[in-house]
Amino acid sequence: MSEDILRMRGITKRFPGVLALDGVDMRVKRATIHALVGENGAGKSTLMKILSGVYPHGEFEGEIELDGAPARFRGIRDSEHAGVVIIHQELALVPELSIAENIFLGNEQAKNGVISWNHTNSEAADLMEKVGLRDSPRTLVEQIGVGKQQLVEIAKALSKEVKLLILDEPTAALNDSDSENLLELLKTLREEGVTCILISHKLGEVLSVSDEITILRDGKTIETLDTADEAVDEDRLIKSMVGRDLEHLYPPHTPDIGETFFEVEDWTVHHPEHRERVVVHGAGLTVARGEVVGLAGLMGAGRTEFAMSLFGRSWGASISGSARLDGRELRLRSVADAIEAGLAYATEDRKQFGLHLDYDLQQNFTLAGLAKVSKGGVVDLNKITAVSERLRGEFGVKTPSVQQLAGNLSGGNQQKVVLGKWVFTEPELLILDEPTRGIDVGAKYEIYELIHELVDQGKGVLMISSELPELLGMCDRIYAMSAGHITGQVDRENATQEELMRLMTLETARGGVEL
Amino acid sequence: MSLLSALRGVNLRQYGMIIALVFIMLLFQVLEVMKLDQNFLTPRNITNTVVQNSFILILAIGMMLVIVNGHIDLSVGSVLAFTGAISAIALSDWGLPWWMAVLAAVGTGALIGVWQGFWVAYVRIPAFIVTLAGMLLFRGLTLWVLEAQTISIRSEEFRMLGSGYWAQDSVVGGYHLPTLIIGLVAVVFILWTQISARNVAAKNRIDTGSPIAFFIKTALLVGAALVATFLFAGYRGLPVIGIILVVLVAVYSFVANRTVFGRHVYAGGGNEKAAALSGVKTKQTSFWVFVNMGALAGLAGVVFTARLQSATPDAGNMFELHAIASSFIGGASMSGGVGTIIGAVVGGLVMGIMNQGMSILSVGQDLQSVILGLVVLAAVFFDVWNKKRSSGPIVGTTPGGSGEAKRRGKGPDDSGPSGDKPKDREPEPVGAE
Predict the structure, then answer these.
(1) Which residues 418-437 of A have a C-beta within 8 angstroms of B?
(2) Chain-chain contact of B433 with A389 (C-beta, under 8 angstroms)
């Protein structure tokens, strides 16, 4: 047996008009964790889809050698048969089915076409133990969190006798402790001889867990680094990924902070379905003109719920408390009221809640501000086009025409459209929920610059982010939230990741409230 | 720009069904000349097709908005029967003038829309269920108010709405003069809108496509308008119901494309959550879409009753399915957010022409139904295929991961870490009231 479990040579993949992969080489050593990093669009997912047979042999050029033998997969079934299993970003689980059913989905434990449930559940229990999942195999997948769902996916892969496990952004939606668990599990699997390819944007975790790192840029292999090498650190990786020195991840900015214009006091929100559950407890904050205010918190802390309840009660029930803008008490009954009052909320989930992916940029840019381009309920199509052209230019959306469908844009460009859409409503306060989630380093920088432009115009920005370095780099002041409570605030000067993390995990504030 | 690339740029989804309609008409023309040695494309045949399908077309206009908004309405056939019965009772039992009877039917339809819209929009019971219930409910009510009898219509004015022609004595050289004038106005209107749209686009520096493509497109539209004008004018002129249809198409196209309400109907159907978070009152919009559907079903009930000159308990059976099929043939998407008023009308005409053509060729009812079923399937298949075809190279996208899934028509995908992954507790917008 050779030392390498996988060799890919000269992989080239063309899409109409686009060269997605250009002679990519990659070697993965047996029983290691091999990370694959690169900016969005560098070709990571395409490469892994080739490896897992999503693009069958013949649709690309180049050779794949698995375990020393040439591999020509005609489909996912072929690759899984050979022990290559991919776990996609979007988990392929059926929420309404049990854990055991999901593990053996497509591989049902049946005799003569009749499923043996005892066998299914006991086999599932064995696999679940291996991945450290201590629920009943009969638990429905919709009843467990994303972290555990990820483990179910891995158990499913193990049931297929996986040799090479590919994980595409496995920790993106996980909180820190779940991520930790998952990475520990990968190390355990490595001991047992399973090789992992890990695609991740989180460079810190990549460095800590992987043995080797391959960097892709613009569809080409840039280099493969050994993490045992002292010189390999985040800066080194970023440099290699973006092909330039990113001296500053955050654009320089001198804040010009004016008077406080937005105040929330004693804001309490209940869960819309479970009315007895309090999701936000008497929260309060202030935002000044020209200020970027951060809101830090772990998943489930209630940040998004807080923001959406402020935004015209678009989430939650029995909302109480006071919100004032320029000293005026806001009484918002609908999103339309909130927009009218000068609030904007750019959602964390731009595909589901932020954009109409099947509609073009013009319609997306103007939907929230149709009143501005219409008279007596009749919209002015010429004005819509003109306004959209202007916004496209101002926000640097890289597309030749405003007739382009939003769904055809990259994540970064989509986010710019979302920002443009909200800026068009001329808000006083913009609430940006995870404004840089899932977009690459270059596009992040542009989004940061746009945020600075907004506050320089005297608007206020409330920025929710799960990336602490981003909050530290962008915000003038940061609130921390834990279990529905605002647990403290820190200034730019005094803010450190450690201090924020302490506030975000403050137990005393929980007060026995089940979230 | 070469001719080939000009052709690639043509939006087949938009024009495909119009081309298919013309093709089907020519096909029947050829078949009937060959088999029966007579013309299919006669003024009489075309006029009759439109008149005989007018109520389906009216229903299809409303249905298109319902489907675009992400719902469905199975009750329109029963509502048509019920409102038709109300109009007949208003005329015969209550002795109301014809126009009051029309208002009574349309008003009743709108009230039914209020009822169904309430359950769909505010109580959030799926429209399929609410209108399935409505289908049974209003069929039953029709039987009840008619006491299972047929009521015949005596009012001449009322009958005009279904099968009337007007100004029969102003004829020039065998052509109906007012129809010729309407046709001329339509041609001028088409030229004006096409040219001004192109000028405005040029002013805003939008790619206007090649002049050849523009010329061909405009010439085809004008040609179609002229052919239609002479076909109608050559028989007895544009029938009364034809005028009603033209007005409805114009008004509803305007509402759909150019009004805030129309854009909200599309936005709510395309992505309800995103629309709600953009300040669109999605519930209210859905509610009014159903009220509108009810009112149009009421109008269709009037037209159908007037054409039959009587109200019968089993009127409008299966009409809901014809209206739905018209919308899908005309390019509506099952998932909502997509479709045009013109598309619904063209879809309805495709079915009408095929019925008419096959009947003249004495194709049996059995085979007609089989063929129409296949046409519905083929039209939707064409749409799916065309969607894949037209999503060519992606501009503004970084190459690789994010692009190719869309190019293969699998819907959007992103290589970003977690744009659409559910969080532990994802708050869902509850929509704006």
Answers:
(1) 421, 437
(2) no
Q: Which residue of B has its CA nearest to A16?
A: B393
pLDDT band at B207 (very low <50, low <70, confident <90, very high): low
Contacts of A385 in chain B (CB under 8 A): 200-201, 204, 206
Q: Which CATH number fits domain A4-242: 3.40.50.300, 3.40.50.2300, 3.30.2290.10, 3.40.50.150?
A: 3.40.50.300
Quote the pLDDT of residue A145.
81
Nearest to B72 by CA among B139, B141, B129: B129
CATH class of A248-342+427-515: alpha beta
| CA gap A139, A145 in Å, rounded | 12
Taking one residue from A and the other from B, the number of pairs with CB-CB distance under 8 angstroms is 255
Residue B117, amino acid: G
Q: Which residues pair with A165 in a beta bridge?
A: A85, A196
Contact with chain B for residue A246, Cβ under 8 A: no
CB contact under 8 A, B278 and A367: yes
The predicted structure's pLDDT at residue B274: 92
- Taking only the tens place, the pLDDT of each residue in B105-135 is 999 999 999 999 999 999 999 999 999 999 9
A21 touches chain B (CB under 8 A): yes
Query: Would you place residue B171 in the very low, low, confident or very high pLDDT band (cuts 50, 70, 90)?
Result: confident
* B407 pLDDT above the threshold of 80: no
Q: Enumerate the CATH 3.40.50.300 domain ranges in chain A, comma separated.
A: 4-242, 248-342+427-515
CA distances A87 to A55, A91, B424, Å, are 16, 7, 19
- Identify whether the C-beta of residue B178 lies closer than 8 Å to the C-beta of residue B237: yes
What is the predicted pLDDT for the residue at B414? 36
**Of A186, A179, A182, A214, the residue nearest A37 (C-alpha):** A214
% of chain B at pLDDT higher than 90: 54
Return the amino acid letter for B192.
Answer: W
B35 touches A: beta carbon within 8 Å: no
- Return d(Cα B308, Cα B270) in angstroms, integer: 39
Query: Do the chains contact at A315 and B200, CB–CB below 8 Å?
Result: no
Mean pLDDT score of chain B:
84
> Could you tell me whether strands A477-482 and A292-297 are parallel, antiparallel, or unpaired per DSSP bridges?
parallel
**pTM score:** 0.78
Q: Which residues contact A384 (CB under 8 A, 6 or more apart)?
A: A362, A363, A365, A366, A373
Q: For chain B, which domains are there?
A: 7-162+260-389 (1.10.3470), 165-238 (no CATH)
Q: Which amino acid is at B182?
A: I
Which two structure tokens, joined as six digits, stand for B191? 């030229």
- Amino acid letter at B178? P
Q: pLDDT digits over A93-107, tens only?
A: 888 889 999 999 888
* Chain B residues 249-288 with a CB less than 8 Å from chain A: 257-261, 263-264, 266-267, 270-271, 273-281
> What's chain B's length in residues?
433
Question: What would the pLDDT profile of A139-176 be if each residue is shown by its tens digit?
Answer: 998 888 878 888 898 899 889 889 999 998 888 777 77
The pLDDT confidence band at residue B432, using thresholds 50, 70 and 90, is very low
Over residues A55-89, the pLDDT tens digits come to 998 889 999 999 888 989 998 888 988 999 998 87
Put simply, the chain A residues between 368 and 407 with a CB less than 8 A from any chain B CB are 368, 370-371, 374, 377-379, 381-382, 385-386, 389, 397-404, 407
- Residues from chain A that touch B430, judged by Cβ atoms under 8 A, are 272, 313-315
Cα–Cα–Cα angle for A396, A357, A48, rounded to 5 degrees: 85
* Contact criterion met (CB < 8 Å) for A349 and B407: no
Query: B 173-202 residues with CB below 8 A of A?
Result: 200-201
pLDDT category at A17 given cuts 50, 70, 90 is: low
Whole-number Å distance between alpha carbons of B246 and B238: 10
